[in-house]
Specification:
transferase, Biotin_Carboxyl_Carrier/Decarb, mainly beta, methylmalonyl-CoA carboxytransferase activity, 4-stranded antiparallel sheet, 132 residues, Biotin_lipoyl, Methylmalonyl-CoA carboxyltransferase 1.3S subunit, single chain
Amino acid sequence: MKLRITVENKTYEVDVEVLDEGGVAAAPAPAAASAAAPAAAAAPPPRPAAAPAAPAPSASGGGNEIPSPIAGNVLDVKVKAGDTVGENDVLLVLEAMKMETNVSSPRAGTIASVSVSAGDSVQSGQVLVTFA
C-alpha cells in the first residue's frame, strides 16, 4: 500500500506493509472481486506455544515479608513490632495518586518488624512489614 505523508511541508511517498502478530507480511486484500475462486493462501507455520509464566511470588503463601503492592506514600501504620494480628487485619495504609490502599495481613501471626513510618515514600515490592 502506498501512502503520501507530509512532514514540515515536505511530501514523501512511502510503501506500507501490514504485518501480522508474528511479523509476517499479510497478504494484500483483493482490489476487486473476481469470478475465479481465489487461491488458498499458505497458512503461516504454527508457532510453538509459549511456556506458562512462573507465578508471581505471593505474600499470602506464608512468607515472612509483606511487600508494598504499589509505589506511594505511607499514610498510617496500624501495627508495631510484637503485635499479634489476624488474617486480613489492616497493617498499614498507603496513598498513591490520591487513592488510599490498605495493606492487609495475609495470615495470622506476630509482627517482627515494621520497616516504614507514616510519611515515608515506598516503592512497589519494598518490604513494609516482617512476620516473626
